[in-house]
UniProtKB/TrEMBL annotation, chains A, B:
One of its GO terms (molecular function) is RNA methyltransferase activity. It holds the Pfam family MRM3-like_sub_bind. Belongs to the class IV-like SAM-binding methyltransferase superfamily. RNA methyltransferase TrmH family. The keyword Methyltransferase applies. One of its GO terms (cellular component) is cytoplasm. This is TrmH family RNA methyltransferase. The keyword Transmembrane does not apply. Keywords: Methyltransferase, Transferase. PANTHER family: RRNA METHYLTRANSFERASE 3 (PTHR43191), RRNA METHYLTRANSFERASE 3, MITOCHONDRIAL (PTHR43191:SF2). InterPro entries: Alpha/beta_knot_MTases, MRM3-like_sub_bind, Ribosomal_eL30-like_sf, rRNA_Methyltransferase, SpoU_MeTrfase, SpoU_subst-bd, tRNA_m1G_MTases_N. GO terms for biological process: methylation; RNA processing. Residues 32-108 form the RNA 2-O ribose methyltransferase substrate binding domain.
C-alpha cells in the first residue's frame, strides 16, 4: 500500500529534493526522473524507481497504477503526495504527474559489446546537460550501441539531462571514461573513430564509414584537443554556409549519426 | 565617454534586469543579449545595442573597445559596471563579459524574398527557447533564408533563445505569423512545403526537394495538426530505430535541413 506524505516538512521530501544537486546525487548514488512518459519508458526497459511519488489525483491513471504495482512488487516504495509537494520535488511550476528516485546505474567499457551496433557516440568534455540528453535521444533513434562520455562531462544523471533524454537515459548505455582508457579499449577491437572537425576538407557526406563507427564530438566551445583529432581514423566536417561557423554539439552529432545510419542501411 | 554604474540600486539596473521577463520585453520592445561573441556577431551584421554594459576589467579588451566605440557612434550608451552587477543582469553566476540591450526588430512575411535562399525553416508552436535558438543556429549554418514561427511559439527574444542561437538571431530573419497568413503568402509564389511527420512511408533521404524548400516542424510534444500536414506538398519521415520514436525538434529540423542542403548543392 502506498504511504501518504502531505507535509513539506517531511524529511524525505528534503532528501529527495536535494537530489537535484550533484553533490547529493553523488553521495546517495541516486537520481531523479520526472514525468509519466519517461518513467513508463524506464519501466518498459526494466528500470524501476526505488521511490515513486505521485499526486493523489493521478491515482486512477492506468500507467500510474502499473508503475505503483511494479515498484511495490520490486520492493520499492510508492508514495502518494500533493500536487504542491510534487511541484517542489520537480522544481517546476507545472508539476509532472510522477517523480521517481532511481538508483544510479553505470556501464563500463568492458561491458560494451561493439558487435551489437553499427554506430556508437562519443562525446568529449560535453558541458551542457540539455545537449547530453538530446544526444542520448538521438542515440536511441539511430540505434546507437551507447554513449561514451570522455573526460569531464556534465553529469548524465542531472535533472536537465534526464529530462532532455526523454527516457533515452534508460535505453542507451552510458559509459564515463578518460581518453586513454577509451582509446586503449577502442583499439582492442574493430572500430572506426570518426572525429567531427573544422580542420579538414573531407565533407561528411563524401566519406565512407565502416561499422562499428565511433563518432567523436568535441567540447561545445573548444572542439576536441589536437591529440584527440590526431588519433581519429577519419576527420570530417559538416559544411556551414553562414556567418557563425558553428553548430550546436547535439545537432552536429545527429547530422553525422544520420549520415552514418543512411550509409549503413544502404 | 561611458558612464559608470556601481550601485545595484540604480533604477536602470532593475529596468534592464526586468527584460528577462516577457511582459517587460513586450512593453519596452527591447531584449537582452549576452556575451562578447554574440554581441560581436551582432555588430558585424550592423546590429548595435541601445545600451552596452561591461565590467571595468574588460575595458581594455579590443572587442569591447570596438563595441563601445560603435555603440557610442550610433547614439547608444556604453555603461561600465561591476562584475557583480553584470552577473545580476545576466542572471548567471558566471557573468558574461558584456550585456547588450537591443531594440526588438521584426521581419514580416512581405519582407521575405524567397528567391534569396533554397531552404527556409518553419516551426509551428515551438515551445522551448533552447530549441528555437538552436534552430536559428542551424538556419545560419545551412544558409536558410529565414525562420518563420507559426502560431503560439516561444519568444525568439527570450534570454535563453538568444543565448542558444549563439548570435544567429542577428543573422537569420525571424518572422512571426499565424498559419493562414503564412499559407496564403507561401502559395503566392514558388515554394515546396515539406512537413516532418511520423504518418508517412516516405523516407526523408529518398524524397526530392525543390528550391525554395520550406521545412515545417511541428510542436515538440504533439507534432503538427492534421490540417497543416494536409496542406504540405510532401510529408517525409526520419527513420527511428529506437524505443522512443521521437527526436528533439531542433535535431529533426537539422537532419532534414542538411539533407535538403546536400541535394541542393548536388
Amino acid at each position: 500500500m502506498p504511504r501518504e506524505i502531505t507535509a513539506y516538512s517531511n524529511p524525505l521530501i528534503k532528501r529527495v529534493r536535494d537530489l537535484r544537486d550533484k553533490r547529493h546525487r553523488r553521495e546517495a548514488r541516486q537520481f531523479l526522473a520526472e514525468g509519466l512518459r519517461i518513467l513508463t519508458e524506464a519501466r518498459e526497459t526494466g528500470r524501476l524507481p526505488a521511490m515513486l511519488f505521485y499526486a493523489a489525483p493521478s491515482r486512477l491513471h492506468p500507467l500510474v497504477q502499473a508503475l505503483v504495482r511494479d515498484v511495490e512488487a520490486a520492493g520499492g516504495e510508492a508514495i502518494e503526495t500533493t500536487a504542491d509537494i510534487l511541484s517542489k520535488l520537480s522544481g517546476k511550476d507545472n508539476p509532472q504527474a510522477v517523480v521517481g528516485v532511481f538508483d544510479e546505474f553505470e556501464t563500463s567499457l568492458a561491458d560494451l559489446d561493439r558487435s551489437r551496433a553499427g554506430i556508437w557516440l562519443v562525446a568529449e568534455r560535453l558541458r551542457d546537460p540539455g545537449n547530453l540528453g538530446t544526444i542520448l535521444r538521438t542515440g536511441d533513434a539511430v540505434g546507437a550501441g551507447g554513449l561514451i562520455l570522455v573526460g569531464e562531462c556534465v553529469d548524465p544523471f542531472s535533472v536537465e539531462a534526464v529530462r532532455a533524454s526523454m527516457g533515452a537515459l534508460f535505453t542507451v548505455p552510458v559509459v564515463r571514461s578518460d581518453w586513454q582508457p577509451f582509446l586503449h579499449w577502442l583499439r582492442g577491437g574493430p572500430g572506426q573513430l570518426v572525429g567531427l572537425s573544422l580542420d579538414t576538407d573531407i565533407d561528411y557526406r563524401s566519406a565512407t564509414y565502416a561499422a562499428p563507427t565511433f563518432l567523436l564530438t568535441g567540447n561545445e566551445a573548444q572542439g576536441m584537443p589536437e591529440g584527440y583529432a590526431a588519433a581519429c581514423d577519419l576527420l570530417v566536417k559538416i559544411p556551414m554556409l553562414g556567418k557563425a561557423d558553428s553548430l550546436n554539439a547535439a545537432v552536429a552529432t545527429a547530422v553525422m549519426a544520420y549520415e552514418v545510419l543512411a550509409q549503413q542501411r544502404g
